[in-house]
Design brief:
single chain, eight-stranded mixed sheet, 2 domains, globular, alpha/beta, binds nicotinamide-adenine-dinucleotide, 11 helices, about 300 residues, N-(1-d-carboxylethyl)-l-norvaline Dehydrogenase, domain 2, Rossmann fold
Length: about 300
């Protein structure tokens, strides 16, 4: 029987890791966190404020609640300290298979034997990471969406040997922090809703990069159609274009289909450092992107 999750460790406190740590801490869990960059948590917290303002969505936690949750997260100077007594460890480092395998190998040696190890990867199935550990039965994908943009859902997917108890414990924990688990029954790249979103993103990127349409018109269409306050390009800026590019490359390396290769124009933006909200410039410029202006949908 798995022990009840009480202490959570988060490794990598960038855009998503910081949100996960704060959400868990706000809902009463003891949370410790570690990042190579000592300032990443603080920087991510600042970005959440900008993202919330730009999205026009109701965040899972208000800015005040985010601050409250953040105060209780214990920021550690090394991974060992963060993993001490953890019942659940969530990895949220950049989207790179060898990096994630390396982190999982270390987590396996540092976290208690009974601890569940979860990856927040956007595209890498846990079946590709689990063998870096001696506990594949306790490994799973736990893919969060942008909590700061009100997306309180989490894809849950097991690997080749994940025990049902591990999946169930993951789902129960996700519910306990105010999120909805979306369970994947059979391994598929992209998990549940993320794969649907990815199909939209790929099409939008190619239509823009191949010169068929201006990206703003795709965003306008999306915003009018769905009633949302941000289109696919505005949202990709919020995610980070380096992250988007990395995810698209994972799909391409899996399928080898040229239509899955992310456009060179996207790569050029990443190389220039135009990474979206976190860099102050991506498809739009921040903190006041064009799509927020009152006449954006009237032009
Ligand atoms: P990010 O670049 O904002 O943050 C990654 C953090 O990991 C950085 O702070 C970096 O300093 C840290 N890091 C790098 N190497 C490390 C190491 N060896 N040890 C500890 N920390 C290390 O990236 P992100 O957007 O938060 O993405 C992280 C993961 O979450 C990726 O797998 C991504 O696919 C996934 N994800 C991202 C989003 C999103 O909207 N950005 C959504 C869902 C899932």
């Amino acid at each position: 029987m798995d022990r009840k999750i009480q202490k959570v460790a988060v490794v990598g406190t960038g855009t998503l890791g910081a949100q996960i740590a704060i959400q868990a801490s706000f809902y009463g869990y003891e949370v410790s966190a570690y990042d190579l960059d000592e300032r990443s948590f603080e920087k991510a917290l600042k970005r959440m404020k900008v993202r919330i303002e730009n999205s026009g969505r109701t965040p899972t936690l208000s800015v005040e609640e985010l601050k409250e949750g953040a105060k209780k997260v214990k920021l550690c100077l090394d991974m060992e300290e963060a993993c001490l007594d953890a019942d659940l460890v969530i990895e949220a480092v950049p989207e790179n298979l060898s990096l994630k395998r390396n982190i999982f190998q270390r987590l396996d040696s540092l976290a208690p034997r009974e601890a569940i190890l979860a990856s927040n990867s956007s595209s890498i199935p846990i079946s590709k990471i689990e063998s870096a550990t001696t506990r594949p039965e306790k490994c799973l994908n736990m893919h969060f969406y942008s909590l700061d943009l009100g997306r309180n859902m989490v894809d849950i997917m097991g690997g080749t040997r994940t025990r049902t108890e591990t999946i169930d414990a993951g789902k129960e924990w996700v519910r306990s922090i105010g999120c909805v688990p979306l369970t994947v029954k059979k391994e598929i790249l992209g998990f549940c809703f993320n794969r649907v979103w990815r199909a939209i993103k790929r099409e939008a990127l190619h239509m823009w990069a191949d010169g068929f349409v201006d990206f703003r018109d795709i965003d306008r269409g999306w915003m009018i159609w769905t009633g949302m306050s941000q289109g696919p390009f505005g949202f990709m800026d919020a995610v980070g274009l380096d992250v988007v590019y990395g995810i698209e490359m994972i799909y391409y390396s899996e399928s080898k289909k040229p239509t899955d290769h992310p456009p060179e124009a996207l790569k050029a933006m990443v190389d220039r450092g135009d990474l979206g909200v976190k860099a102050g410039k991506g498809f739009y410029t921040y903190p006041n992107p064009e799509y927020k202006s009152s006449d954006f949908l009237k032009r």
